[in-house]
Design brief:
The chain is mainly alpha-helical and 200 residues long. It has six helices and no strands. The relative contact order is 0.15.
Length: 200
């Protein structure tokens, strides 16, 4: 006896696949930059902030080949790793970004409700961004005359590369969070509004 699964399969269009692919590509780039920043920072710590290229040129041909081969092996290993995760991760991103929420019919075409709820969500997002940006700004510029900014600790290229990678991760995370908060927050606020109307 043959049985067929009754679970509906969510189909995504080309644009949705492209958007999830862009987010995944940004995650991969941020990961590679962050890993490169960590390696570079350790090299700055143990080998010094300057003179690394001269030290490399002073090595014999065998060591040069081994170092280049090691760097390429690490890079291609990471690329294979991320390629293997592409299908699963991009699908998870599509589910996360484009999860469909069914609204009650009475709220679907009410422009006033959409404006009020949208304004509330934008205000909450602005508050969250402000609380996150405040400490970061103090860290960059220095909270007072006696405090030092983060630039005083970035005396070499390694920490700068690491900072770019981590910053890219933060931007991606903030973008995904705002998308999730917008879609799910809109749905939850309308559900709360519906509950209040039923109690009247």
């Amino acid at each position: 006896m043959e049985s067929e699964s009754s679970t509906p399969i969510k189909e995504y269009n080309k644009t949705q696949r492209i958007v999830s692919g862009i987010f995944y590509a940004l995650i991969v780039i941020a990961s590679l930059v962050s890993i490169g920043g960590v390696v570079w920072t350790f090299a700055d710590i143990f080998l010094g902030t300057t003179g690394k290229f001269e030290m490399f040129l002073a090595l014999n041909l065998g060591y040069k080949i081994a170092i280049i081969g090691g760097l390429l092996a690490g890079l291609f290993f990471l690329l294979v790793f991320f390629y293997g995760l592409f299908k699963k991760t991009s699908k998870s991103l599509m589910v996360f970004i484009y999860k469909k929420r069914e609204l009650e019919e009475r709220y679907q075409n009410r422009r006033g409700v959409k404006i009020v709820v949208g304004g509330l969500l934008i205000s909450l997002i602005v508050i969250i961004v402000g609380f996150v940006l405040g400490p970061i700004w103090d860290l960059i510029t220095g909270a007072s005359e006696d405090s030092e900014s983060i630039f005083t600790f970035l005396g070499s290229m390694g920490p700068w590369v690491l900072l770019v990678g981590v910053g890219t991760f933060l931007v991606i995370g903030a973008s995904l969070f705002m998308i999730y908060f917008w879609k799910n927050g809109y749905y939850l606020i309308l559900r709360l509004l519906g509950g209040l109307e039923k109690e009247e």
